[in-house]
Specification:
The chain is built from 6 helices and 2 strands, in the order H-H-H-H-E-E-H-H. The relative contact order is 0.13. Strand 1 and strand 2 form a beta hairpin. The protein has a two-stranded antiparallel ribbon with strand order 1-2. Helix 1 packs antiparallel against helix 2, helix 2 packs parallel to helix 5 and helix 5 crosses helix 6. The chain is about 55% helix and about 5% strand.
């Protein structure tokens, strides 16, 4: 389907979306469980590779939030959508961080926290939510449970 030029009127369909340069934009449908699963698996790969723990925190936190919303949606029987924008999920929530992480705190310029502890905490919550939702664990999730959670007791 041919895209419209800026300023043209008519019925809108996703196939009609164009970017600022006039090129077609490929809008596709993605299930939020798949997005969250990919976030979690990527976070686990980064964690085991001992790479950027801030990215692990961001990815695991976004995954945990989406899994939690899917679980709430399942519990309510889809009467009311508990979902927020995916873009909102990818931004840290100051108030939530203060409520859930007593040892961490934030100023305008700095975040004070034990980065490894926060990464492990969020990975664990995301894995728990994934398991509750699917009844399954990936190889990396089992590895995390065996290697990390078992040492914490």
């Amino acid at each position: 389907m041919k895209g419209r030029l800026p300023g043209e009127r008519g019925p809108f369909t996703f196939g009609d979306v164009i970017d600022a340069t006039g090129g077609a934009v490929n809008i596709e449908k993605h299930h939020k469980q798949e997005i969250a699963s990919r976030h979690l698996e990527t976070a686990l790969l980064l964690y085991f590779a001992q790479k950027d723990l801030f990215s692990v925190i961001t990815l695991a936190g976004a995954a945990e939030e989406m899994f939690g919303q899917l679980l709430r949606l399942r519990e309510t029987g889809a009467k009311q959508s508990p979902f927020r924008s995916v873009l909102e999920l990818l931004r840290p929530a100051k108030a939530r961080a203060k409520e859930e992480h007593g040892g961490a705190h934030e100023t305008d310029l700095y975040v004070h926290m034990d980065v490894r502890h926060e990464a492990e905490f969020l990975l664990g919550r995301a894995i728990d939510d994934y398991f509750t939702l699917t009844g399954e664990l990936s190889v990396n999730m089992r590895k995390f449970n065996e290697e990390v959670r078992s040492r914490r007791g």
